[in-house]
Amino acid sequence: VSLVPRVLRGRGLPVLAVDLLGKPAAMPVFLSPTAFHRLADPEGERATARAAAAAGVVMSVSMASTTAVEELAKAGGRLWFQLYVQPDLAFTRAVIRRAEAAGCEALVLTVDSPVFGRRLRDLRHRFTDLPPGLACEHLREPTADGYGAPRQIAFSADVSWEHVSWLRRTTQLPLVLKGILHPDDARLAVEHGVDAVLVSNHGGRQLDGVPATLAALPAVADAVAGRIPVLMDGGIRRGTDVVKALALGATAVGLGRPVLWGLAAAGEAGVGQVLGQLRAELAGALALVGLGAPGEAGRALVRAGAPEEVSWPES
Ligand SMILES: Cc1cc2nc3c(=O)[nH]c(=O)nc-3n(C[C@H](O)[C@H](O)[C@H](O)COP(=O)(O)O)c2cc1C
Question: 201 CA to middle of ligand 1, Å?
Fold first, then answer.
């Protein structure tokens, strides 16, 4: 996808802040949920949460977080909670109540994982269990005075739209469906009263052969037709990537691996640097394509094809 800037528009320095599910975010970027941050840094999700709070962006807390959501709330930033429906719905409901009590502002239901993808790198590295001392904190059994031993995380092969309806009845929190690629599923999401869809292929980790999310985005945006926000993640690495996604219909984009790379390199400061660098690049890119705010991006700004291949439409 290429960018075709407009010039001489006198827009001044862009304002990056956007509304995300009814509340402000400092830029149209959020942290997509990623598991096991304490594998990357001893402070793990705590460090990530502090960096996200300082940058004014939402952190989606993974169901498979190695730090409890109550701890992450102490960082004072905006949190969403990512959920895999567990076959035990009573336990799933208890996890939702926990996220609500901790102040999470939305539930992100990951719908691309009825089973676990075949991850060749994990197989090669023989990554099967967390090292001693680390656990999926949200999978601990509720006990009378806190939380006990963790369960194994489970995937629900039978997960369906009935679970979405069940979630709608179970919580007042806004509901985001993560892992939408097909426009028909985007339409069904709107019909089921979902508050946002997140176009995602799980960072290419679930199923081979699926489209790049940027390629799937326009059809989903057309299907949703502005009724709810469309979010996207996958492959966002620089400011121009954000601008392309905004132009093709995203309200905001999620970051997966770049956050983990920053965290592994330099903990909280590393995540802060990733977010700061992306923010600076985004501000520059918006100004250079002639936009004053993220919401002004539209399809007229982009052409299909790499820069050397772009063909101009008639007109
Ligand atoms: C190490 C790793 C762990 C992840 N863990 C989760 C998870 O627990 N729940 C989830 O819904 N998605 C998970 N994802 C997918 C991300 O939310 C996101 O869709 C993807 O990483 C975005 O692509 P990017 O890494 O290219 O930015 C994970 C991705 C990675 C790389």
Answer: 9
